[in-house]
Amino acid sequence: MNDERRSIARDAYIFGYAMVENYRTLYEQAVDSDDSRYTGGFGGFRHYSEPFTPENTDIVTPNNDTPYSWGWFDLRAEPVVITVPAIDRFYILPFHDLYTVYAGYVSAATTGTGPGRYLLAGPSWTDDTPEGFDGVITASTDFVGCLGRTAFTDGDVEELKRIQHSYAVAPLHEVTGSAAPVAAPDPDWPVWDEAAATDIRFFDVLDFLLRFAPVLEEDRGIRDRLASVGLDGSGTFATSGLDADARADFEQGLADGIAHLDDIAEHTASSTGLFGTREEMSGAYDNRNVGAKKGLYGLPPAIAWYGGWLVDSAGNRIVGTTDYTITFTAEQLPKARFFWSATLYTLPQRLLSANEIDRYSIGDRTEGIRYGDDGSLTLFVQHRRPADETEAANWLPSPEGPFTVIIRAYGGDESIAEGRYRLPAITPRA
């Protein structure tokens, strides 16, 4: 047993977990044209204009507040231009690199609701910015993804579609009228295998992805350690060629890394510190991994805060065989500039739960929700419909098995953005 090699393999998992999780979605949506989730490849958006249902499995912990616009961009040859019109509601186009760290945002919360044109560039682009741009977003990796969100208001699907399809993407040379650059060669994409995320092939995928992630100064120490065992980003690392001793070291290091992440994730109850820009996430490998594990492509608290419940007020796992209440005092209700909601997910799948009224979330925009005379709000989380009509108005249906409830607040106040806000408990009904 080579303890140093085992330690480096563990660190490689901790450094690269979010990258490999990201690759699962990239491969399904931008590479594998036979996959039902394929978005059309690189360089555009695929919009989802209907609220999610339990049948949608593209992403864990999906939400029904803000239907998605998926996009993937190859920035090796040249930047792309993102153009948006004036938009009268919450929206966000957040551009994440291969690490799942955000290069930047175009959104109502950051760049405003007016029209704009933005340059999205990769790490190799060094030219001057042409005139007529409202901002430049520079990514640290050659490939970038975007899980755009647009608020779904008053059930108006046609208006939602109009806004989504107004998000325009074009290569820079088409906008400037210059000659097209030489296209970058197609990578030899590793075929995604679900088991690859948890077996030794993890390291093969990681080395492939590191080809498109130039070493950042903040990561130089860990990248040098990875390179010392062959994970140098050349794309040539192959666990199939390891001898028995090296293979055992990598397998044990992988197990160590998985156990470490599971432990960290088990004790993380909110999204504070899990998502953000390069400046905010520098060196925070555990945080970005927990974010990728519990809510891939989540947003930072100042834009969208996430919290929730896995256990009840007695410390027991919440499950559909028990009825629960969640009571917010008027002061405890999330203070959000845009809106807030609570969404229920099955476990361990973290997908929406089918129910008789097709209600998957509840919040301040839910029609007919009943508040107390003192401004408080009680949610009733249970499998069977409450007999009392007042309670039924505030019912969030649960499955029979284990579940979790995730709350989101869009444009939260300072207490939310700074991590001081605390949720009330979820309490079993007597």
UniProtKB/TrEMBL annotation:
<dbReference type="InterPro" id="IPR037049">
    <property type="entry name" value="DUF1214_C_sf"/>
</dbReference>
<dbReference type="InterPro" id="IPR037050">
    <property type="entry name" value="DUF1254_sf"/>
</dbReference>
<dbReference type="Pfam" id="PF06863">
    <property type="entry name" value="DUF1254"/>
</dbReference>
<protein>
    <recommendedName>
        <fullName>DUF1254 domain-containing protein</fullName>
    </recommendedName>
</protein>
<dbReference type="InterPro" id="IPR010679">
    <property type="entry name" value="DUF1254"/>
</dbReference>
<dbReference type="InterPro" id="IPR010621">
    <property type="entry name" value="DUF1214"/>
</dbReference>
<feature type="domain" description="DUF1254">
    <location>
        <begin position="45"/>
        <end position="171"/>
    </location>
</feature>
<feature type="domain" description="DUF1214">
    <location>
        <begin position="310"/>
        <end position="412"/>
    </location>
</feature>
<dbReference type="Pfam" id="PF06742">
    <property type="entry name" value="DUF1214"/>
</dbReference>
